[in-house]
Amino acid sequence: MEKTQIIGVDLGGTNLRAGIVNENIREPVVAQPLYAQGNRTQILEQIFGIIDKIINPGVKAIGIGVPGLVDPTSRIPYDIVNIPSLNETDLRTVLEQRYQVAVKIENDANCFALGEFHFGAGRSCSSLVGLTIGTGLGAGIIADGRLFTGKHGGAGEFGMIPYLGKNIEYYVSGRFFTNVYQTAGEEAYRRAIAGEQEAIKMYEDFGRHLGEAIKLILYVLDTECIVIGGAVKAAFAFYAKSMWETLGDFGFSRSLAALKIETSSLINGNILGAAALHLPTADRRP
User: Fold this and answer.
1) Contact present, 197 and 233 (Cβ < 8 Å)
2) Which SUPFAM superfamilies match (predicted)?
3) pLDDT at 271
4) Nearest to 105 by CA among 286, 283, 279, 275
5) pTM over 0.90
6) 58: closest CA among 7, 1, 118?
7) Which fold, 5-112+268-276?
8) Tens digits of per-residue pLDDT, 112-126?
9) Which part of the chain has CATH 3.30.420.40?
10) pLDDT tens for each residue of 170-206
11) Average of per-residue pLDDT across 38-50
C-alpha cells in the first residue's frame, strides 16, 4: 500500500468503529455504540462524529462497510434491516462533500473478504470466500483477484439458500444452537470448553452443516480459500473435524485437495477491508 492514509469504517448494527490504515501501521481504533433506530440525520451525525475523531490532513480516502447491500452502479446502500433510516441514503456523496476525499461503500461481509485478501489468510490466494458466522451468515467473494458482488450487490448470500426445510443460515450461524438445541451459542461454547460431551456433539453437528454449505460454495465457485470470521470462529477446534469429514465426499478431488480453510486472525479485519476498497487489486502489500 502507498503511504496514503485511508480511514476504514465498520458500520455495524449496534456499534460504529473506525481506524486509519497506512503503509505499515494500523492506527488505534475508535469505537462507540450506534443508535441504529435513529433518524437519518442522527445516523449521519454519529458517522461524522467518529470520522471527525481521527481524520487529519494526510487522509486521502474513506471506506465504509455497511450491514446491507450496496448497488454496484449508484453505490447507494439498501436493504439495511438493522439501520432502517440509512436505506437509500447517498452516503458516498454526503461524505465526499463533507470531507473532500474519495469515499467507497460496500457490504460489510465483502469488506471482511477484502481484508483477508489484502492483509490476512487470503494473501497467497487469487480466489477466496470470507464467511462471517455470527448472529447470521454473511459471505464475501473474491474471484480471480477481484471482489465479486453481482448485478445488484447481492452475490454471496449463501445463507438464504433453502436447506433442510429452512435455509442455510438457520443451521450455519450462531443461532443454530438456539434453533436446533434451544441453547444459546455462548452457553454451548462455555460447556464445550468445560468438556461436556453434549455440547461438543452440538458443535460436531454444526460442523456437518457447515461442511454441506462449503460443498455448495465449492460447486458454485471452486474457490481455493475459505476464511471463517465472526463469533463462531473461536470454537473452530470443536467443529473442524466433522466439517472436513462432511467434505470428504465432494465430487472433485483436485479442488478439495487444494482447498485451504482457516479462521481469521486479523484484528479489526472489517476496518482493514473497508480501507482496502481503495487499494489496487494487485497491490497486497501491508
Assistant:
1) no
2) Actin-like ATPase domain (SSF53067)
3) 95
4) 275
5) yes
6) 7
7) Nucleotidyltransferase; domain 5 (3.30.420)
8) 999 999 999 999 999
9) 5-112+268-276, 124-263
10) 999 999 999 999 999 999 999 999 999 999 999 999 9
11) 96
pLDDT score of 191:
98
pLDDT attached to residue 286: 41
Q: Is the pLDDT of residue 1 over 90?
A: no
Of the candidates 107, 88, 95, which has an alpha carbon nearest to the alpha carbon of residue 147? 107
Model confidence at 282: pLDDT above 60? no
What phi-psi label fits residue 230: left (phi over 0), alpha (psi between -120 and 50 degrees) or beta? left
- pLDDT above 90 coverage of the chain, percent: 90
Could you give the CA distance from residue 10 to residue 31 in angstroms, rounded to a whole number? 9
Which backbone phi and psi does 167 adopt, to 5 degrees? Answer: -145, 170
From CA 111, how far away is CA 276, in angstroms rounded?
A: 8
Which residues, listed in sequence order, are joined to residue 51 by a DSSP beta bridge? none
